[in-house]
Amino acid sequence: MLRKILRSRFGKRDDDGPRQLSGPGDLAAGDLLTFKHRLLLPPDVQGQTFEVSAVGAYHFEDGLYAELTLDGTGGDRIYLGFDAADASEMSLSRTVPRADVLRLFDEDAFAALWDEDFAELEVADALPRYEGWIASRYAQTKKWAEGYYYDRDCRGETPSRLQDDDAEELRCHECEDDTGRHGLSVEVSADGETEVFAEVNCPPDVIESMWPGEG
Length: 215
Description:
There is one protein chain. By secondary structure, this protein is mainly beta. The chain contains four helices and eleven strands; from the N terminus they run αβββββααββαββββ. A hairpin with a 4-residue loop joins β3 and β4. It is globular, with a radius of gyration of 18 Å.
């Protein structure tokens, strides 16, 4: 489906011309982007094209962050996040299922993220499918950070307008490696459901090109 969309975009212009995409902050649902072959990107992202299938947002004490869901040609899904007010830095992330978390990290060491003291994690089994996504060591930087998730595009809204009934309350543990390039985020929703994300921080110039959607 994505290849068909790509073919239909080239050479096609609306009467008023296409939307101009100058950076990740301009991306919306239906848009396409291709990443460069850059070593700081995971191998399964390098040179790949993704479609923005959805736009959501996280609201924390330090600001509002947009999250774009990116779907690839092979059915793979990653997420692109950035400060909604300044997209000069961004992060890519992918979910890590519980079974993989328990292989990547010692269970007791991972559980220490919930303890009073800040934890340190060391990878016990570097699974090949996470090449470029996972660092060898992490240190916890945030514990029980409170925030909200919105399943909609909140860019342009003010924080006071965000506190409404469609907010999903959550708390987060965050970790980083010693370079600041790799991160690990653990999101705990109000009902106790927990999701783990492997993150790679990178500049916007890792994007090779972007194409506007037809909508």
